[in-house]
Protein: Stage VI sporulation protein F
Organism: Litchfieldia salsa
Amino acid sequence: MDNNLFKNIEKKTGVNMKDVLELANSVQNANFKDEKTVRSIVKKVSQIANKPVPKQMEDKIVNSIVSGDQKLDFGTISQMLNKK
């Protein structure tokens, strides 16, 4: 990938692309039916985005993903975070 692209994204969003890529690698083989795994991923996304997630919202996101009601991707979690 183009380092300039990553630098531009980091500059505009304040999000470290290395963290995003590490998270993407960690979720490739993750068990999304396991609440502990999903909760860990939600917390990591929250940390990377620098957007705290209240416990009630975290529970809602985790339950929705574990139950299969929602797929796990950055867009879905972002939408849920913006509804709080």
